[in-house]
Amino acid sequence: MKVQFFAAYRRSGVSKKNNRAYDFAQLSYAVPLREINSESFNQSGVGFEIKEIPLANHVINEFDGIELGTPVELKVTPNPEDPTRNICIGLA
User: What is this structure's pTM?
Assistant: First the structure.
């Protein structure tokens, strides 16, 4: 999956709402804005939109030093916690 790199980050802590611990990583990337025209929704514009995908915690360092907007090829696989969605498992 080719995208333009935006950010990779890991968050951990304890939820204020339910006092549960959390630890996850996310990858933010930019894709060209696409025009959408349907009966209930329209979108037009120029530039890019930011998307996010879960990131395997152990690969976050692979993204160290990559500059904003750099084209990267991601390795993705079905997310074991939700097989209907993908997770990034590193750079291709």
Answer: 0.82
